[in-house]
Design a protein that fits this description.
The protein contains 3 helices and 2 strands; from the N terminus they run αββαα. Strands 1-2 form a two-stranded antiparallel ribbon. The N and C termini lie far apart (31 Å).
């Protein structure tokens, strides 16, 4: 029972981080004129998620 709650808690935290990642990637966009591309802060959030929750959940937050 305790293990199931722990896994559920990790899943909920990952879902919240995924939602925050989507918002951050759409709102905080930094254009890079030399490459006609852009930077966003979602990469940092993915790294933080992987460090806090492990590689499996970090990959889940990062998406495909």
């Amino acid at each position: 029972m305790v293990k199931q709650r722990s896994e559920l808690r990790q899943m909920i935290i990952a879902a919240v981080l995924i939602a925050v990642n989507v918002v951050v990637s759409r709102v905080f966009v930094i254009p890079v004129p030399m490459t006609n591309g852009y930077l966003n802060l979602s990469d940092g959030l993915i790294i933080v998620a992987a460090l806090l929750m492990g590689t499996k959940w970090g990959a889940a937050v990062g998406g495909p």
